[in-house]
UniProtKB/TrEMBL annotation, chain A:
Transmembrane segments: none annotated. The lineage of its organism: Eukaryota, Viridiplantae, Streptophyta, Embryophyta, Tracheophyta. Residues 18-78 form the IBH1-like N-terminal domain. It is found in: Nucleus. The keyword Hydrolase does not apply. This is IBH1-like N-terminal domain-containing protein. The keyword Cytoplasm does not apply. Keywords: Nucleus, Transcription, Transcription regulation. CDD domains: bHLH_AtIBH1_like (cd11444). InterPro entries: bHLH_AtIBH1-like (IPR044549), IBH1-like (IPR044660), IBH1_N (IPR059002).
TrEMBL record, chain B:
PROSITE patterns: BHLH. Pfam families: HLH. The lineage of its organism: Eukaryota, Viridiplantae, Streptophyta, Embryophyta, Tracheophyta. Keywords: Nucleus, Transcription, Transcription regulation. Residues 103-114 have a biased composition (Low complexity). Residues 131-181 form the BHLH domain. Residues 77-87 have a biased composition (Basic and acidic residues). This is BHLH domain-containing protein. It comes from the Eukaryota.
Amino acid sequence: MASADKPINTDVPEKDVFALHFLQSLSNLRRQNTFNSPEKTNDRVKKIKKAAYVSMARAAGGTNRLWSRALLRRAAKENNKIVRFPRRKKRVTCLRRRSNRRDPVEEEEAERLRNLVPGGGGMGTSKLMEETAHYIKCLSMQVKVMQCLVDGLAPK
Amino acid sequence: MDLTGLKWLQQHQQMVSPEFLQILGSDGREELRKVESYLGNNIYDTIDGCISRTSSFQMEPVKNNEENRVIALGNKRKPEGKRETIEKKKKIKAEDETESSMKENSNMSNTETSSEFLKQDYIHVRARRGEATDRHSLAERARREKISKKMKCLRDIVPGCNKVTGKAGMLDEIINYVQSLQQQVEFLSMKLSFVNPELEFHINELSSMMVDSRSFPLHQQGSLDYSVINSNQTTSLNALKIETSSNWDVHSQCLYNNLRTDSVSSFFSLK
């Protein structure tokens, strides 16, 4: 009889929180001067995409989730900003990277998953599963928000 | 040494220790034997009874003499005939027992101390019959169970994985789903940038979103979020007035007068 740990929590805030953060980040974007040039569509697309991810990370996890922290850190590095996170109570998990907790059979696919999910390299397999679940939920929420926006703006 | 003393012993049922017998001396033993024959082995019976009565616990010798390590027994365990379960804590060694009768008989007093260990915060794993009980394999099994529990959670989230069984196929599905979601985000951001190159987000979009989705908390009075959106909107208004193209000015006037979705759509169709 394996005693269960505390139940796995994959709660995600409502759609409105995501929408709010996304709109805020977009309005921040349009304050930048470089945005009004319509020629560089690729840059614009990239900026919107980055804004989407960052707003999603802020809306959903804040600094409580490993993937959101990794995302925000990566985005800040691109902007050459330094991001500081408050210290968590638990000790840092990257110390456990070298331990032999990984089953070689399932490790190939777990490797692919690690490349997809931000921050996946430093997690054990079980933690990776939790983060993936939460990440999937947040991603689907963000997609819904963006779809609503596009539908609202699209010419009928 | 007279008989009355021995009779008193018998009547009061005191334990006869070997030291006492030594005190009696060898002569006493002979006399004891005489008494024994006289009383018909009654003394020894009573002596045995005394010993059994004064002991606090019973112990029967363990017939299964493979290992004689400390047994950690659970209190709530029912003796099961066919399926043997052993409860193991990670800091106490476990003993492999195949006979269940021994467990029934041994009420050792050290179960009291072992129950205190149970209350600590260890991971309790049950080893089934025929499986290895060394620490590493049990830890492996606990870890695998954890991962499979989380995979079950993921199954509920990822759509369309009812047909797939096993970890490998499940992981494939998950990877495909994450990839598709990320591609959707990229596609939608591209669409957004084309649909609205100037990125004008005003109350119109918010109201349209309210129509599409559930109630927006922004429309509550006095909420901080609403004021933030308001300030953004005013800045965008100022930015619009600086706009050089006259087309945009005309259209933006219509935009701010009407707050309906259809006006937004007409505005965009005029482009």
